[in-house]
């Protein structure tokens, strides 16, 4: 009987200890997103657009690359983009006509864009799509200033004018996002 009482007592102490421990909920903090304003070149001229992502995603996509940066449009009613990993046109690619159209537009405008980048000593970002060939491909070119007067290296945040982007994925079609883009 003594052994039985000891076992019951020990079991009750263990159970009280297990259930008395405060269980901490694991809260996963969602990383803060930012937006960077860009110029979207269309067949009717240029319009405002933004690229969104975490600071790390944007820095990885924009800092280490020269030339084309491929984007995906994530809103049907607003010009909101995210960077994607793409290698460009592949042999036999059905998007080749679109790539060719984008390359031709880039070649026709690179000198003017370089002049703007050098004049302001800031990166100039031109996002190009192919309205004639269709397909929904968006390519952004990051034109860095190459003038000797622009040799000061600024931090990533200053180079790209990061702005906090407090909208969720479900709000990308909203008028508030449209106003955010328009104010750029």
Overall 3D form: elongated
- Could you name the ranges where pLDDT drops below 50 across 5 or more consecutive residues? none
Number of self-contained structural domains: 1
Kindly state the percentage of residues in helix: 25-40%
What's the SSE pattern?
Answer: HEEHEEHEEHEH
Secondary-structure content class: alpha+beta
Radius of gyration, Cα only, in angstroms? 26 Å
Mean pLDDT: 76
Q: How many E-type strands?
A: 7
> Helix count, per DSSP?
5
- What kind of sheet is the major sheet? 6 strands, mixed, barrel
Strand composition percent: 15-25%
Strand order of the largest sheet: 1-2-4-3-6-5
Distance between the termini: 81 Å
Question: Summed up, what is this model?
Answer:
By secondary structure, the protein is of the alpha+beta class. Helices cover 36% and strands 24% of the residues.
Structure characteristics:
5 helices; alpha+beta; single chain; 184 residues; 6-stranded mixed β-barrel
Account of the 3D structure:
By secondary structure, this protein is an alpha+beta fold. It contains 5 helices and 7 strands, in the order H-E-E-H-E-E-H-E-E-H-E-H. It has one domain (33-182). Helix content is 36%, strand content 24%. The chain has a 6-stranded mixed barrel with strand order 1-2-4-3-6-5. The longest helix is centred in the middle third of the chain and has 25 residues, at 96-120. It is elongated.
